[in-house]
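Progress against Task 2.4 (sequence-to-structure conversion) is shown through the following example record, which the project officer requested during the mid-term review.
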Amino acid sequence: MIALRSHYTMDMLAAVIFAHYFWIMSEKYSFVIDWYIFRIPLAKRLANDTSYSEFLENDEGKNEK
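Structure tokens generated for the chain above:
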């Protein structure tokens, strides 16, 4: 039984690592699909991201001066 538990634990750890890797890769490739196929600009894709919208506001203020 101890051997089965250790293999289950290793499987769960590997699943978390692979899930994180695939999440990172899907974020990279979703940009390609959104931009080149659906023509969604970056500002619309990240409209709900507060840190990105704050960055845009600060960057626009610098450009106006």
